[in-house]
Every structure is written in C-alpha cells, then in structure tokens.
Amino acid sequence: MRIVRYDHAGHVGSGVVIGDAVHERSGGPIVAALREVTLLAPCDPRVVVCAGRNYGQPDGTGKPKLFLKAVNAVTGPGSAVRFPPDLRRLEYEGELAVVIGRTAREVPEESYRDYILGYTCANDITADDWRADGQWVRAKSADTFCPLGPWIETDVDDPAALHIRTKVNGRLVQDSPTKDMIFGVGELLSYVTRWITLQPGDVLLTGSPAGVGPLAPGDVVDVDIEGVGTLTNSVV
C-alpha cells in the first residue's frame, strides 16, 4: 500500500494511491486522479534521526554515527531545494527512509518490523562547507534540506533487499544495494530507541552510499529505490 499526503484544491489530506488515483483509504472513495493532486511529504515527523557513514568500511567503533535533521527541513516530492546564497557547495545524498508506525522505545532488533509503518525515499541535502560548525546544524537542517517521498510504501518484505539509484539531470551518480549498509534497519532502530523514543510518523534515515556529489541551481535530482518509488526535486 502506498500512503500519501496531498494537497487537492487547497485541501490537505492523507490517503492511499491505487492505480492512478488517490483514495481516502484502501477500498475507499476516490479523492482525485494522482495527476490532479500535489503530493506533500508523506509524513509529518516530530523527529528525523539520521545514520551517517553507513556504507563502505566500518570505522571500528561498532556503533552507528547519528545526527538529527530539524523538521523545518522536511519538504515533499516535486518541491524545490533552495541553494543558500552564501554557500559554495551543496550536496545530494540519496537514502532509504524508515517511517515509524507505533511508539518505539527500546525496540528489540529482531522485532523491528513491528514498529515500522513503511519506507520512503529521502535526499539528505547537505551544505558541505558549513560542516565546520561542528554540530552540523546549518549543514543539515536548513529549510528544504530533507525531501521525502513520493509516498510511504508499506509492502517491503526486506529493507536489505532494495537498491538505491540517484541521478542528477539524468546522470547516474549513486548505485548501491541496501544490503551494503553497515548497520541494517533493525540494528539502527534498536540502537536509536535506547535513548530516543520515536512516535508514529517519525523518520529514520539509513545513510547514503558512495557517489555523493555537488548540486547547482537548475539541477534535477531523482532518488529511486526499487519497490519504493522515485523522489524528484529541483534545485533553485
């Protein structure tokens, strides 16, 4: 099932995509054709927790590297990512995002699926030359720096059996199976919820594979995750 949030003729609502239409709920009445609505970020998180450097070689600590993105950064599919005027280098980071379905505290790794509503695509936009702040606040949390979408796909059997492909202006720049994550979804969710209670709608970003690179105004970025969907955003 594909769960969406949408704006239709000024009305913001949630529903599911069935075929080429948005319905109020599974089996419910049609709201509108998919082409007639503006898709919003598919959830409205209270917390966005991110795993850094979760592909490639482990660093030897045996623990995930975590940071937060502020919720003001969340934006939806088709929306514009704003390139700050005083920035030299803006970067894309295509990622698999986990959307929480029930209150998650001290989640057992083997039971992680019980706490997940579904998965969506994310682009962890980063202002590279602002990382000198030390806390990465500006670098990760400026407005529009967390595109999510296009929907929440609930029918994912194994998040380690997916594939992330990111394109910039049609050129393939990231191409990786999610099985290459150092810490899988279960490990990450268990680790995070030792200290941070996650609520329904909250988001866990699972890290970006090799190929992270620069963006410029006018670029169009596609983050495609097979079995989940394609998130497209432009840079202005």
Automatic annotation (TrEMBL):
Q: What class of enzyme is it?
A: hydrolase
Q: Locate the Fumarylacetoacetase-like C-terminal domain: which residues?
A: 57-236
The record's InterPro entries line, in alphabetical order, gives:
FAH, Fumarylacetoacetase-like_C, Fumarylacetoacetase_C_sf, Rv2993c-like_N
Q: Known EC number(s)?
A: 3.7.-.-
Gene Ontology molecular function, alphabetical? hydrolase activity
Would the keyword Cell membrane be found if you checked this record's keyword annotation? no
Q: Does the keyword Metal-binding apply?
A: yes
Entry keywords, A to Z: Hydrolase, Metal-binding
Every copy of the Rv2993c-like N-terminal domain together lies at 1-42
Q: Which family does it belong to?
A: Belongs to the FAH family.
**Protein name per Swiss-Prot or TrEMBL:** Fumarylacetoacetate hydrolase family protein
Which species does this protein come from? Nonomuraea marmarensis
